[in-house]
Amino acid sequence: MAFDQNTFDRLAVCLEYPTEETASAASQAAGESGLPSGMREALARLRDWVTRDLNEAEELYTRMFDMSPVCTLHAGYHLFGEDYQRGALLAMLRGELRAAHVDEKNDLPDFLPTLLRLLGRLEDPEDRSLLASSLLLPALEKMNHSLERGTDAFSALLKELPGILENEVVNAPLAETTKRTVRLPCLT
Predict the structure, then answer these.
(1) How much is the pLDDT for 134?
(2) Which of 33, 65, 123, 156 could hold 179 in an S-S bridge, CB 3.0 to 4.6 Å?
């Protein structure tokens, strides 16, 4: 299955602070054909949980991601901490987000949902692969290590995401492209 911009946008909504839109996005994403069963189950759990108890989902999201640097959803933090290299990464990502017309939504450019939106808009398969393999997958590995005992829907979703990125982005066949050359220098 080839993930398109809408799929990555829906996954991004599922990893943002929970709202009523989360359940709808999870339901739509779970309906994608060819989606692995583990991801489909994680999305269904998220949809059901947010529909049943939005306040509980909001509270857990805040505890897991906003109050814990161990599992922050800021990918650059997992790679560089507060080092100056993260600042360079943030500046580079901000330029990529502007070029791709992706709104940061008052967050830093390395926020996982924002990066998923960017991934869906990068036209060059090499750029997509570079973003996934050099930033997203290493950050998700660290996030998932800190969540290895997590049984909630957010943890399940984050545990399934690396497989999706490996299969749909990193290992996807590279097509000839003339769109542009790789512009992600901080990741090379």
Answers:
(1) 94
(2) 123
